[in-house]
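Lab notebook, entry 297. We have the chain sequence and a SMILES string for flavin mononucleotide, and the next step in the workflow is to get a structural model of the bound complex before anyone spends time on docking refinements. Request logged below.

Task: model protein plus flavin mononucleotide, output structure tokens.
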Amino acid sequence: MGKLDNKLSLLLQFIDLIHVGIVICDQSLNDEPIVFANAAIEHITGYKVGEVLGRNCRFLQNGHTHQQGLLNIRQAIKSGIQCREIILNFKKNNSPFLNDITIMPIKENGRNSQYIAGILTEVKINSSQEIAQIPERDHETGLYNYRTFYLKSRELIAEAQSKQKYFAIGIVAVEFHHLIDEVSSYLFINNILTSLSKTFLNEFKSEDVITRLGDKNFLFGLIVDSDNPLWFTKKISKIIADSNKITPVYLAYSSKINYMATLPNIHTHLDQLITQTYKNSFEDCAPRHDALSNQLH
Ligand SMILES: Cc1cc2nc3c(=O)[nH]c(=O)nc-3n(C[C@H](O)[C@H](O)[C@H](O)COP(=O)(O)O)c2cc1C
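Result returned:
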């Protein structure tokens, strides 16, 4: 027994040393809470182990619950099978990151137990080798994926700096007012957002970079002459109003727009700009999620 304890303690120490995040969720408890998390979770998400225990992992989504990959995760959990998806999550400081998640049921005597393990890795958008397998553009919307957005925005920042122009981040969070049931609303919303994406591509310049972030958010990276946000707000509001004319009344939607332009210098960090613009969008609305309200209080 002593030997087993020893082995277990070594194993736990090892699990805390590895760099991928590991969580174990208990399906027999209400809402599948995390019952174990290793130290890497704090490094990846910014939350301490004690802050994630007892919660369902969805708090990392900050309300972005309509992501395609989540449909697959939900289905895999129901069917008791393994699944791997890249999901947009948010760190404790609100900065978005891509989370490469593998979930797998833990077996006991050859059968699924009540536990599901999750392996979490942050997709490093800065490194050039790693993401070669992810296509540059999302095939559905034609928009850049988040990583391409990131890399191209960094080029724009360098260009803006050399031309002494402003670099701007715009965030458009689309809000639907009358949701119908989960599955059909997902399909409807996806159709609308896909056609909205195409309009954005038509209405903005080809040098501008646009990505769809999570479910209903769009992120814009632009070089602009002035820091006045009005033109952006007006343009987006008109696009949304036009698009609403062809949307069924019960799915009418609006958008929350945040925009921040800055004259970049060598200290300008894209992560910080995105996070700051995100923070602004959260600050003037009621917290939608427990993760967020925990942070605010
Ligand atoms: C072991 C395990 C790990 C998970 N890890 C994450 C995660 O890191 N980020 C995330 O957004 N969702 C994660 N999920 C998925 C959510 O917990 C949840 O299952 C998903 O949002 C779909 O369910 P819902 O529709 O009830 O939200 C994980 C699920 C399990 C079982």
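Notes for the group: The chain has two domains: 2-122, 146-296. Worth checking against the assay data. The chain has a mean pLDDT of 84.
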